[in-house]
Amino acid sequence: MTDFKKKVIYQIYPKSFKDSDGDGVGDIQGIIEKLPYLQKLGIEMIWFNPFYPSPQNDNGYDISDYCQIDPLFGTMTDFERLISEMEKFGIEMMLDMVFNHTSTKHVWFQRALAGEKKYQKYYILRPAKANGDLPTNWVSKFGGHAWQKFGETDLYYLHLYDVTQADLDWRNPDVRQELYRVINFWRNKGVKGFRFDVINVIGKAEELLDDPTGDGKKMYTDQPIIHEYLQEMNRQTFGQDARIITVGEMSATTVENCILYSQTERKELTMTFNFHHLKVDYPNGEKWQEGTFDFEQLKDLLHGWGQRMSAEGGWNALFWNNHDQPRALTRFLDDKNYRVEGAKLLAAAIHLSRGTPYIYQGEEIGMTDPKFDKLADYRDIETLNAYKKLQLMGYSEAKIMRIIQAKSRDNSRTPMQWSDEPSAGFSTGEPWLPVAENYQKINVETELDHGSIFSFYQRLIQLRKNHLVISEGSYTAYATEHPQIYGYIRSFKKQRLLVLNNFFEKAEPVPLPAEFISGKLLVGNYPEAERKAMITLRPYETLAILI
Length: 547
Ligand code: GLC
Description:
Elements: E1 9-12, H1 28-33, H2 35-41, E2 45-48, H3 76-88, E3 92-97, E4 101-103, H4 107-113, H5 117-120, E5 125-127, E6 147-149, E7 155-158, E8 165-167, H6 173-188, E9 193-196, H7 217-220, H8 225-236, E10 245-249, H9 255-262, E11 271-273, H10 295-312, E12 317-318, H11 328-332, H12 339-351, E13 356-360, H13 381-392, H14 397-407, H15 410-413, H16 444-450, H17 453-466, H18 468-471, E14 474-478, E15 485-492, E16 495-502, E17 508-511, E18 520-524, E19 534-537, E20 542-546
Parallel strand pairs: 1-2, 1-13, 2-3, 3-9, 9-10, 10-11, 12-13
Antiparallel strand pairs: 4-8, 5-7, 6-7, 14-15, 15-16, 16-20, 17-19, 18-20
Helix pairs in contact: 12-17, 13-14
Bound molecules: alpha-D-glucopyranose.
Residues 58, 61, 98, 161, 197-198, 249, 323-324 line the site of alpha-D-glucopyranose (GLC).
């Protein structure tokens, strides 16, 4: 077993990290420039969102060639330089494998369209129903139907995402072999981690049926066959190297399945991402609606997953932010009055928990949502589709913009704020997506100069390396009934760590178990206060006591 449990992973969204050539889009050379910064932070692996050739309809998740670098980001030589530079800094590389679908510009899809039977079998093609209806009633996750006419034929192809992202048929062993070759290609270049995009939706049945009660999700999500596919992929690729770390992105999954996906002895994946805790502000499960955040639900979800994964040997990827989510600091806390305290609270709440923490670029300096006020500033395809849908629903422009400001994926995709120079030092040209207006106040230079969020992250990352109770300890929920506190106890051999987080502005008392009264304050976001049987947590306070 490797020491993956001691590592923290950093996520880079290449388009928005650092532009070295002034075209407004981040690139590989830009990333190389910033490696010393990441080494200083202390992370040991970087997950890169896709930088393969792509029409960029879904910002690189529509891949047209799995084994090349898109010229937008650089060349294969740049990539090789990146990996060897990273090695010098002791940082490993995790690549994004988007295997549920390819771009319709991929040569496989193009050859299928041209009539080659072999490649037609790579995709999920079906005729219309006898009555002329689409093959099933499934809905695309980006809005609209999940089926599109396949060229001049009478068939339709399935696309669970954008119409330019055609689903692959994993039942075809040739498809699986092609994809395994992709993993091994990158392994040979020294890649030590793989993130599998929406990997729990790959198991479609031979006979596709209408969903009698929903949008189709339950007909293809977490199907039992996926476990077999993952075991086969593991055997034929990354499972041959014990140092490799894998994470599966699981859409609308269950804890039962995530335990199976991540138990070591099952030889599927190292860990899983799930999103339940990031839906606690979706009224009735609807993303594109205004909603307030339900702390009870958040706490119950974190406890439920933490405890079950711990008891049954599963492993969670721990995160608040990524390229698909608005920033948690804006979303759940008060980023105006308590930005610094809030950023630290969110960090400690997951970095001290059981699982592998991920830091999304900019989180370590407390970046916030930009809240653009005009549609023209948004680029994301899901956002643009949602705008049209909300208009059809008759919503006012002002209401639509409020929803988009709160929900758009572009919230986290704005350029990394490096300095107070124009375009936040991200690019000398015009950035592909506007920079958040607050860059003169929130940026890396200012943060390293006199901020305290970055150093708090440094400390958390070091604590995980040095304390087995953090990297290995079990998870038990604490103060589960408390209306404001998310608390847990980690235990490893004789060591115990109590972590308390006040998710609100109001100061709140919470009981302290007697044995922790004289324990050591390992980390906190306020000066140490006197401890008694009851302690009062200040606004957005986090603290961890070790005994
Ligand atoms: C994942 C990615 C997201 C992408 C989708 C389709 O959810 O994180 O950015 O749009 O898969 O590939």
